[in-house]
Amino acid sequence: ADGEVVAVILRGDRDLNEIKVKNYLNCGQLFMADEQSVREQCGAGFGSLGPVDLKARIYVDSEAARLKNFSCGANQDGFHYINCNVGRDFVPTAVGDFKNAVEGDPCPDCSGMMRELRGIEVGHIFKLGTKYSDALQAFYRNQAGDEKPFVMGCYGMGVTRTMAAAVEQNHDEDGIIWPMPIAPYQVIIIPVNVQKDDQLQAAADIYQQLLDRGLEVIMDDRDERAGVKFKDADLIGIPVKLTIGPKSLQENKVEVKKRWGTEVEKVDISQVADYVKTIVEDGLARK
After folding, report:
1. Cβ contacts of residue 119 below 8 Å, gap of 6+?
2. 131 or 41: which leads in pLDDT
3. Does domain 6-96 have CATH number 3.90.960.10?
4. 66-81 burial: b if 16+ Cβ within 10 Å, else e
5. Which fold has domain 176-285?
6. pTM given for the model
7. 287 pLDDT tier (thresholds 50, 70, 90)
8. Do 63 and 54 touch, CB atoms closer than 8 A?
9. Neighbour tally for 9: CB within 10 Å
């Protein structure tokens, strides 16, 4: 730690958390010592090290500090002590939390047990301190009139990671189910047969009406089979799908389907734009 050898004592089945140690010591640099440095400092190599008579600052993990009559290295190759106890056989510089947590550990803030779950980092915050404000001579005056450097910080958001996390939580066997606030488009319009002028014209009219209402819309006017278009729409995951086919058009209606449901509603063409706007607004307001 900053050029000084320090020892951290853990239970033998635990792993060191270097970040915890670095934060506790408030040091600039921290790294594991190599074999040569260890031998020069302790007189033995890895596997035979211990805290008794060790000429270094000793930090003991709180779990290890509670052990009674434990075994440890004797700082001589091939030798170990038995029946060691903290306080009697060596006095630590400090006791703290220096280990990696594992599932089943007691929670430090409550009476529960810790669980291990997979997660994804979508953002982070760094405390920069005065490193850059000192270099840039970015100062302010406090109430006493003294110049002080700004304490700086920065943060970052992972846009693509956020989208990946959203997809991980919002999908089914057919594809993505985009939450309304981050959907690439809010509505997709599918004329079943683009060779039919009435279907294409109705789709174009509704497309414009939705644009006029401030919605984000895409129209699938590819000359493809209806099944292909439906499958692609589900795969991409656009929240609201409008289907304009020959049967519904004869009834002067449009089929409306929400990506997160199974129900297909038939809505009058004259009312569909306002109806879809309501669906989108509800989706945007959903927490």
Report:
1. none
2. 131
3. yes
4. ebeebebbbbeeeeeb
5. Rossmann fold (3.40.50)
6. 0.62
7. low
8. no
9. 22
- Cα distances (angstroms) measured from residue 148 to each of 97, 134, 136, 208: 33, 9, 12, 58
Which pair of structure tokens corresponds to residue 246?
């020959």
Give residue 46's identity as a one-letter amino acid code.
F
Q: 208 — phi, psi (to 5°)?
A: -70, -40
The residue that leads in pLDDT, 70 or 108, is 70
Domain locations in the chain?
6-96, 123-159, 176-285
Instruction: List Cβ neighbours of 265 (8 Å cut-off, separation of 6 or more).
Output: 255, 256, 257
Does 35 have pLDDT greater than 90? no
**Amino acid at the residue 200:** L
Report pLDDT digits (tens) over 208-218. Answer: 999 999 999 99
Q: Is 191 left (phi over 0), alpha (psi -120 to 50) or beta?
A: beta
Find out whether 138 and 170 touch, Cβ atoms under 8 Å: no
